[in-house]
Design goal:
The chain has 102 residues and is mainly beta. The protein contains 1 helix and 8 strands. It has a single domain, classed as Immunoglobulin-like, CATH 2.60.40.
Amino acid sequence: MRVFVLAAALLFAAAPALADVTVEVGHNHFKPTSVTIKKGESVTFHNVDEMPGGHTVAAVDGSFQSPPLAKDEDYTHKFETTGTVKLKIIQHPNAAGEVIVQ
């Protein structure tokens, strides 16, 4: 049994890790404004600014929307479809970003 557990641990340790991508969300901005990931990877949106009611990250096409994020809160979304997903911040209509999924 111990050999099986060790073999399984080595197998999982050798598996390539998915990218850990974080996008900063704040008043009127995403930073960086564009990120490229692979299908099945996730992006974490991290709010860096105070905003009454929080900042809400959303896909322009309606495919996802975060809950309102208070300062220093995160929201992670896994992207399962290739293509470019345009982003907006509900509270700041001029803020724009994108996730390119390959």
